[in-house]
Amino acid sequence: MKKRVFSGIQPSGHLHIGNYLGSIRNWVRDLDSRDNIFCVVDQHAITVDYDPSELRANVRELVGLYLACGLDPDKCNLFVQSHIPEHTELAWLLTCVTPMGWLERMTQFKDKVGSKRERVGTGLFTYPTLMAADILLYQSHEVPVGDDQKQHVELTRDIAERFNHKFGEVFVVPEPVIPEVGARIMGFDDPTVKMSKSAEGQHHSVALLDDLKKARKTIMRAVTDSGRDIVFDPERAGLYNLLSVYQALTGQSRDEIATHFEGKGYGDLKKEVAEAVIAEIEPIQARYRELTADPSHIDGVLAQSVANLRPIVDQTMDAVRRAMGHR
Ligand code: AQP
Question: Which residue minimizes the CA distance to atom 7 of ligand 1?
C-alpha cells in the first residue's frame, strides 16, 4: 500500500519559486511512490480581503501551473477545495474539538493579523482547523509542505489525536514532510522575511509566470551584504538565500557549491542563480501556455478527481458523523 499524501496551495496570488521549491517540486518528485491528492485551497484564500474575480482567475492559474509543473493527472488527484463541500463541514466539527489556546499559539495568525485584530474575519483565526479538515478528510499519512506550514500540520496531528481519544479511532494521524533544501526561501528584496505571494514589492519574489527579463532583474538586484567570500553562512541572510535557491535547483552539495564559487563575486553568483531559475521556469511557462489553451481539459481533470475522491470523503464523513452522535 502506498502512503497517501495530501497537500495544497492557496490561490492568493502568483505562485513563486518559494512555493515551487518548498512544495510542488517535491510532490512531483514523489508522484510514483505515493497515493497523491493535491488541492487548490480556495476557501483558505478568503480569510483575508480579496477580490472574487481575481480569486476565480487565480484558481485557474494555479491549476494550470500544477499541471505545467508536472503533476500528471494520471498519477494524482487534483481538485479545488470548494468543489467538495465536506471540507467545511468537517472543519466546523473539528473547530468544536479544538481548544482556543491551541489556535492562539499559531504564529502565522499572529504574523498576518498584525494590528488589525478587531477587524479581521474570524476565518483567519480558525484557518488551521480548515487545514486540519483538508488533511484528515482523506486519511492522509503525509503532508509535504514548506517550513512555514509545519506548525499547522503539527496542530492537525494534535486535533486528530484529541478526536480519536474522545470519539474513537477515526483519523489517521499525519506526518509533516519538510524538504531538506528549499523549505524557507526568503524575499529577494528583504532576506529577513519569508517569500510570500501576498507580499508587496516589485522585486520581492520571482513568480513562475514572471517575464524572464524581470525575473533576472529581481535576482540581480537581490539584497546581499558588503562581504566578499561566498559561503553558506545563515548570518548573511541575503547570500544564504541565494545559495539556498542555487542548491535547491542544481542539487549540488554545499561543499561543491563553495568550491565552484571560490574566487568569484556576488555578481557571478547572482548571474548563475538567475540562469538556474530561468532554466527551471522557462519550460514550465511553455507547458502552461499549451495546457491552458484548452480550458475543457482542465475542467475534465478537476471533475474526474472530485469523482475519484467521493468514496473516501463519504467513508470518512460517515465515520465522523456516527462517532460524534449525528447518526
Ligand atoms: N518562502 C517559501 N519557501 C518555501 N516554501 C514556501 N511555501 C510558502 N512560502 C514558502 C510553501 O508553499 C506551499 C503553499 O503555501 P500556501 O499557499 O498554503 O500559503 P503560505 O504558506 O502562506 O504561502 P505564501 O506564498 O506566503 O502565501 P500567502 O502570501 O498567501 O500567505 C506550502 O507548502 C508552504 O509551506
Answer: 19
For the beta carbon of residue 103, count every other beta carbon within 10 angstroms.
16
Distance 196 CA to ligand 1 centre (A): 6
244 pLDDT higher than 90: yes
Ligand 1 pocket, residue 10 CB under 6 Å: yes
All structural domains of the chain = 4-178+295-323 (3.40.50.620), 212-289 (1.10.240.10)
| CA–CA dist 190, 298 (Å, integer) | 36
pTM of the model: 0.96
Q: Is the pLDDT of residue 26 over 90?
A: yes
Residue 166: what are its φ and ψ, rounded to 5°?
-75, -40
pLDDT band at 116 (very low <50, low <70, confident <90, very high): confident
The C-alpha cell 494521524 sits at 173
Please give the Cα distance from 273 to 258 (Å, whole number).
Answer: 14
Rounded Cα distance, 32 and 30, in Å: 6
